[in-house]
Structures are given as structure tokens and as C-alpha cells.
């Protein structure tokens, strides 16, 4: 039976599709290829997948009512829902895009799952942003998450609540994954590691917020994919309702200044820092407690920031643009 992957042309989505195909799954990928960042990067990610046995791609907007219905007759029983409008800061500029993609789109995925003959499991992307300005670290799934500091965070918490409701009402097995600052090859050009690399190689200043006194639990994309597949293969069992949420992070926060220092060593370039205040919607620290996902799935991230950034830099300097 095929696995439906939304956001298949996205950063995490394309990596998940790749791994599913490598292990022999049939994959139906959907994405609207929007222009939040250069769609040519999304098409380049897709080019790595197209032509592989078992992969098909459909360009569509999951926020359109009934857009996914055509796939119900194809025997889909498992869904990995990764499509979303990303970016904390952009949510201040385009709030409606976040409601349409992240809330309405999530609802449409749930309605699709509700109408499947047999939905085995929906795995969907939440975010560490739901923890808002929590000062208790590390962040645990048991912590309060009802005080978001960005609209993006609010939409992701809304997704978790709506999913819990559908699990309660219709028995749809669901797992939400709170991703912590995912990075790596084929990543997003709006993320700090990409922006810093691009600017440093061009001799431009990099924007460093809060004097570099920010910590992020940077999580390498291959580790994230391992978590997604492990969870996908084991739907909730014995839970009422059948819904759960896990952190997926690295459990080793890195200070932004130290992060920049690693990039400087890898690029052989000294960064020109332009210090700026904390931006609206940002938080000072993220830090994932992985106790639950390690207990239930044996998940432990393996990639250090030095190794992960080296892989990104090697990729960035490669021929991916051709």
C-alpha cells in the first residue's frame, strides 16, 4: 500500500520520500510548489525522486477542499503530513497563508484520513515553536504549550488540538512530531545556516540576533527521517484516543556564536557580524527532552553539529544548482 507524503518537494518531505523509496515503499508525493522560497530548489529536490520505482508526484494545494480525495481509491492507509507554510518571522507578514496552509490544510488531511477505508496511521509535523517562551529546559511534551509567541507556533498547536479531536471522534491513529531546528543538505534557504553560509562566502555581513546569545537544538535531517520512519511503522496502540506527540531534536543546544564559529572553520572565512536585537516571534532557547521518543522507539540522534554542518557545506559547494 502506498504512503501519501504531503510537502514532498520540501526539505524534510523530500528526504522522507527518498528513504521510503529506498526501503521499498510506494510513495505518492503531493506539494503545491509555492514561492515562499525559490521553487526551482523544490523542483531540484523532486528531480532526485522522479523516475524512481514506486514514486509518483502530484502538484496540488492541500488547502483546497477535497483536493486529496482522488488518492483514497489508490489504497493509501498511511499518511506523512509535512506540508506547511514555514518560517516564524514570515508569519508576521502573511498571516493568512499560515491559517490556510497550516490549519485549513491540516483539516483537509484529517478529513481525507477520516474517509479512508482503513487509515492505519497519520504522522504529522508539529514544531518546537509550540513551547513559546518556556524557560524550563529541556522542553518536555508534558510542558504547557498554550502561550505561543508567533502565529506559526499557534497554527502548529492548533494542529495538535484538531488532531486530538479527530482521534477522539473518529479513532484515527495519529502521531505529531515536534521538530527542533532541522538542518542539512537540500535545506531551506530562509534558515540561518544557509543564510550565513551564503553571506559569508559572498563577503557580506551576517545578521546576528540578541548578540549571539541564542541557543538552538539543531537537528540533522537524517536523524529526523529516522524518527519519522520509526514512528510511522508503529501506530499508537492501547491509547484512548489514539493520539500522541513526541519531540524530535538533538538534545544538545548550540549557542549561536559557537554555531557561527563552526561555520567559519568549515568555510575558511571569518564572518562579519551585524548585531541586531531579538526579533518578534523569536525565542532565546530551544532544547528537546527526548526521554519519551527514546523510550518508545529507541530514537537517539547520532549527528554532531560539526559533522552535520560539514555535510551541508560540502553539499552547498557542490553542483546541486546544475
Overview of the structural elements:
The protein is an alpha/beta fold and 322 residues long. The chain has a domain at 3-181 and 220-250 and 288-301: Rossmann fold, CATH 3.40.50. The chain has 9 helices and 13 strands. The chain has helices at 11-22, 39-47, 95-114, 151-170, 192-202, 221-232, 256-267, 291-297, 305-316; strands spanning 3-6, 27-31, 55-59, 78-81, 121-127, 174-179, 182-183, 206-209, 215-216, 219-220, 243-248, 254-255, 273-276. The strands form 4 sheets. A 7-stranded parallel sheet has the order 3-2-1-4-5-6-11, with helices on both faces. Strand 5 (121-127), helix 4 (151-170) and strand 6 (174-179) form a beta-alpha-beta unit. Helix 3 (95-114) runs parallel beside helix 4 (151-170) and helix 7 (256-267) packs across helix 9 (305-316). The protein is globular and about 55 Å long. The two termini are 34 Å apart.
Share in β-strands: 15-25%
Radius of gyration: 19 Å
CATH fourth-tier homologous superfamily of the domain at 3-181 and 220-250 and 288-301 = NAD(P)-binding Rossmann-like Domain
CATH architecture of the domain at 3-181 and 220-250 and 288-301: 3-Layer(aba) Sandwich
Instruction: Give the total of beta strands.
Output: 13
